[in-house]
Prior knowledge:
This protein is an alpha/beta fold. The chain has two domains: about 1-200, 3-Layer(aba) Sandwich (Rossmann fold), CATH 3.40.50; about 235-455, Rossmann fold. The chain has 19 helices and 14 strands. Helix 16 (about 360-365) links the parallel strand 10 (about 350-355) and strand 11. Helix 12 (about 265-280) packs antiparallel against helix 13 (about 285-300). The longest helix has about 30 residues, at about 205-235.
Amino acid sequence: MKIVIVGSGYVGLVTGACFSEVGIDVVCVDIDRKKIENLNNGIIPIFEPGLEEMLHRNMKKGRLSFTTDIVEAIKDCEVLFIAVGTPPDEDGSADLKYVLAVARDCGRYMNDYLLVVTKSTVPVGTSEKVKNALQEELDRRNVEIEFDVASNPEFLKEGAAIDDFLKPDRIVIGLESDRARDLMKSLYKPFTMNGHPVIFMDIVSAEMTKYAANSMLAAKISFMNDIANLCEIVGANINLVRKGIGSDSRIGNKFIYPGIGYGGSCFPKDVQALIRTAGEYNYDLRVLKAVEAVNKDQKMVLFNKIMHFFGGDLKGKTVALWGLSFKPQTDDMREAPSLTIVKNLLEAGAVVKAYDPIAIKEAKHHFGETIAYYEDQYEALIDADCLAILTEWPEFKFPNFKIVKKLLNSPAVFDGRNIYEPAEMKQQGFAYFCIGINTSGTFETSLAKAAALKVF
């Protein structure tokens, strides 16, 4: 079987690599000539554990190739996946111009039956627009060629995408015909032989499933961050509360870790898009609006803690940051809390020194030369007035605290990911501040601090 994947970004590359890994011939198409040239030379545009090795292996075996020529790629193709970007417009809606452009190309160049599958995250009703755009091009050519449209949303976690694709929790496929069902069932057979379920449904339900899943996970994060802020005020320990509720099988222990807000390419965009979709049908998604508002405020919490510690004046202060990506095992900084925190630190007059194992190159696209970058986590601490943890990279979990304390001008640590134990940090002589735990010691002090932080 030969398949084509249009779009060689995060979703397209992972999808192409994993399908080729099980023996399927895959052609990845992209309009970005430089990106395709780099890919053909073994240079990939993103960091994802295991992806580079898998790409090289399957390119060498001739199962995976890259091109800008969709006309040639679509020849003898049975299934074409649309995996292009759907960036948010200013109103929060998903921009479908790239998706529909691919649909029109299919109508222009296909000469035999084709199953067109939307892999990109798209709003409810997109597949109907894809179908119409494709049919319009066939009508212009005055030809009758049978085709099907399907929806196959991705559920990949950045940092674990390869494992998620090869061993999926579930595969969701929305379609309209038996022919499309048989093709998709055959395509995914290698991934379902170990019992991983394929859930077939109508297209609209499949499109909704993707948004609903990400919105539910975002809701869990914002709920826990809201509770964490309350815990600080009343003197409760959010880590103990998390264990208490996470042991309930109805709730579970995933996505209930407090922090400084969610980011990345999915949750922020998908929550906004679903809110927008509901608005188009005159329905107000009040819970998701609150989820988004809490997340926006949460990105300010660590900055406000730093401001409060230094008496509201950061001019001339140097803040060291460990971690810039929105989560570990990725260089993705889209909607990362670090973007908000760095912006506010700079506006307050602070000097920022940053270290991240992977995301420094990406960070320079966002911050330029406004902050200093370091290749060593300890070097970033030299002459800094405090340390802030923004991403829970594994190498940050057990640092040499004696070196940390020696290098900092003042032994102050602001932990936005709760990776250290407050009692241990206090014992080692640090002023330690985290999320959802009152380290000030008294109820009255916590209320005063809450007022100062302005977000509780």
